[in-house]
Amino acid sequence: MLLIQPIAVTVLILFAFFAGDVHAATEKKVGVVLLHGKWGNPSQHINTLATSLNEKGYIVTTPLMPWSKSRGYDIDYPAALGIVENNIRELRKKGATVIVLAGHSMGANASIAYAAYGHEKIDAVIAIAPGHTPDLYKYHINIESSLNKATEMIKSGQGGESESFIDLNSGGRSVNINMTAAVYSSYNNPDGMASMPISATNVTQRVPLFWILAGPEDVLYNSGKNYVFEKWPSNPLNTYLVLNVTHLSAPDNAKEEILKWINTLTLSFGN
């Protein structure tokens, strides 16, 4: 017995060591592209969530998107989705085998659009307090004059020229931003890539969706499941969650549920 006990202990220690290594390696196979919201940046509102994902062992990238204050829509929506695509490729180079595309507000909008129009394979979408709704009347009526101006400029061959256009954000906030007419139209055409319902109907893969609403005061609270969630391809992992938090605090408040959902996702891949 005295000889068996040390061997047993050694085996247990080695098993724990290698099991820990296998677990860590498995966790690091998950790559997350996390997109910030309109007028924000990677250090605002999504930074705590990004830290939590990193601490879990996931490979996380948080690109600065064109709708940030510092960039001011310097490229159009298709080119913005190109940034997402490049970040997915970078995650794969770093060893990620499961790609989760997540975003807050406008970043959620882009995540949904990429699932419909992107070229690189993704494995899941997490839409946190989705925003930017040019297809909804309340949004459209507030930008209608700017969209009409952009449309006329494009028709007259001035799509590449810059003008001042209205940009609307959550809570009814608006600013005037200089950008080209073509760029403005690409983000605000109610029938374009930024329409989340249209994007949802164009998703062909059975990619699971985690749809997270901030609460009763959020822009899409009254739109219900039919707006996007029920248009999404059926998947047993599709999840609809309503929190009771503010729009801007949603990524932080949802982080525990997001971590649980990603863990369930990885288990479904046999990890």
Radius of gyration: 21 Å
Overall pLDDT, averaged? 90
Q: What is the count of β-strands?
A: 8
Assess the beta-strand content as a share of residues: 15-25%
Biggest sheet statistics: 6 strands, parallel
CATH topology assignment of the domain at 28-133 and 192-266: Rossmann fold
First-residue to last-residue Cα separation: 37 Å
How are the strands of the largest sheet arranged?
A: 2-1-3-4-7-8
Helix content: 40-55%
CATH superfamily label of the domain at 28-133 and 192-266: Alpha/Beta hydrolase fold, catalytic domain
**Shape type:** globular
SSE arrangement:
Elements: H1 4-27, E1 30-35, H2 47-55, E2 59-61, H3 77-93, E3 98-104, H4 106-117, E4 124-128, H5 137-155, E5 162-168, E6 174-180, H6 181-188, H7 196-201, E7 209-213, E8 239-242, H8 250-253, H9 255-268
Parallel strand pairs: 1-2, 1-3, 3-4, 4-7, 7-8
Antiparallel strand pairs: 5-6
Helix pairs in contact: 3-4, 5-6
